[in-house]
Q: What sequence folds into this?
């Protein structure tokens, strides 16, 4: 058990090093779920990894039921083992772009996500949003914390320039070793307890997309409206990092 807690902890350390303000975003998402959905919500965590956000939701709302969805066998293995004493969190091995995602159920009160949906291309994202429109109850919430840049215009350019400057002014050096993405994966790939999951990950060729330009804020908003979401807005923003909110 301690070994799996260690793996979850090292994932958290790596993600915190990459994403300043990660905990603040998690807190705001949990508060929005509590405010909008009450104390016993059924929640999806999309692209959950080992369940970091699912765990925050379960801690802040102990009567919540959270289904954490991911397709990475290594992260699913860590999540299932580390959160074994949190029966209200379950893990589903699914591709978010799979049109059969609604088989996981309907009537969910909220779907949350953190730094995951930028992995999806436009077609997969449209499929996911159509699935969510079927899985969330009317009035249900979608909350997505991710890098969501505006597509064009002078404000988009200004923010791009500020982001570039912010990177240069960053007080800590860029993370290295286990606190970098590649460093963490190198260590995970050598761990005997993860060998089976690592082999399965290789078989699936699950890799981070090397796409230069992520889908824009406007593309996400349009795809949500096209899928049938009634209202779309922003809950929080720092430069191009946002929490996008939509009401089913
Ligand atoms: C940067 S990690 C973030 C994990 C977690 N949300 C967190 O904040 O710690 C991105 C996650 O999205 C998952 N992911 C990417 N594309 C996916 C897809 N098509 N279907 C399911 N999961 C996907 C990856 O496997 C990975 O776990």
A:
């Amino acid at each position: 058990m301690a070994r799996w807690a260690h793996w979850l902890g090292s994932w958290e350390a790596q993600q915190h090093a990459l994403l300043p303000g990660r905990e603040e975003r998690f807190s705001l998402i949990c508060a929005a779920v509590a405010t909008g959905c009450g104390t016993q919500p059924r929640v999806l965590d999309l692209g959950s990894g080992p369940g970091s956000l699912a765990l925050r939701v379960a801690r802040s709302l102990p009567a919540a039921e959270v289904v954490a969805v991911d397709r990475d066998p290594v992260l699913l293995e860590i999540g299932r083992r580390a959160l074994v004493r949190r029966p209200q969190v379950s893990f589903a091995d699914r591709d978010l772009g799979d049109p059969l995602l609604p088989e996981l159920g309907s009537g969910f009160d909220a779907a949350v996500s953190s730094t995951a949906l930028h992995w999806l291309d436009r077609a997969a994202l449209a499929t996911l949003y159509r699935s969510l429109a079927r899985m969330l109850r009317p009035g249900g919430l979608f909350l997505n914390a991710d890098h969501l840049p505006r597509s064009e215009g002078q404000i988009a350019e200004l923010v791009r320039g500020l982001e570039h400057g912010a990177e240069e002014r960053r007080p800590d050096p860029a993370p290295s070793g286990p606190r970098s993405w590649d460093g963490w994966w190198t260590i995970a790939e050598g761990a005997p307890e993860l060998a089976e999951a690592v082999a399965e990950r290789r078989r699936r060729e699950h890799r981070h997309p090397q796409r230069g330009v992520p889908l824009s804020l406007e593309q996400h908003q349009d795809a949500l409206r096209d899928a049938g979401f009634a209202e779309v807005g922003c809950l929080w923003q720092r430069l191009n990092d946002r929490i996008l909110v939509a009401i089913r």
